[in-house]
Amino acid sequence: MENTIIKLDNVVKRYGKKEALKGINLEIPKGKIVGLLGPNGSGKSTMIKLLNGLLQPDEGTIEIAGMKPSIETKKIVSYLPERTYLSEWMKMKDLLKFFSDFYEDFDLEKAEEMIEALNINVDEKIKDMSKGTKEKVQLILVMSRNADVYILDEPIGGVDPAARSFIMRTILQNFSEESTLIIATHLISEIENICDEIIFLSYGEIKLQGNVDEIREEKGKSIDALFREEFRC
Question: Which intervals hold domain ABC transporter (predicted)?
Fold first, then answer.
């Protein structure tokens, strides 16, 4: 595929005797918003951890911009994990300095704009923030990088429905069209209308992949309806 930014070639990942990913072959192009969809336990988080170098495949190869997941790929990949990883003692202003020092592509001005828009108190410690505010802080830090690839693991899974559209709007407003955005979620109806392509995972296998509009036209139904009918476990 021309302009491929991410490539998986026959990737297998096992936990003991259980195969979490079963021979995954996948190419993701530059400049696309991709929904990585599937029920809990389908292999989404395993794939994301492999892409970020947090796990190693038992078989097959992974390339990001022609490189194996490593320190070098971390320079071009901005990753939002499913769980909070921030140090409880830190304040927002401490995190801004840390990220500015650590990532060359961190855009402090963009971060400050999001902080103001999301009404974040820069002097409040992480441990004193609500769960929703912590989610917003992590999102600000991830989306303030001018990265080639953004990988978001369940970015709206832990927030109430009213906050979901707000978070999705923040993501889209701070996402470069030249970058690739991968959103892993089981809340398909929330992201269907922003995705260019989707990847359905079920029991560690790709069951469906392709352009969202083409799939909807071919199947005659929404991606959410298709998932509920054919892929819900």
Answer: 6-228
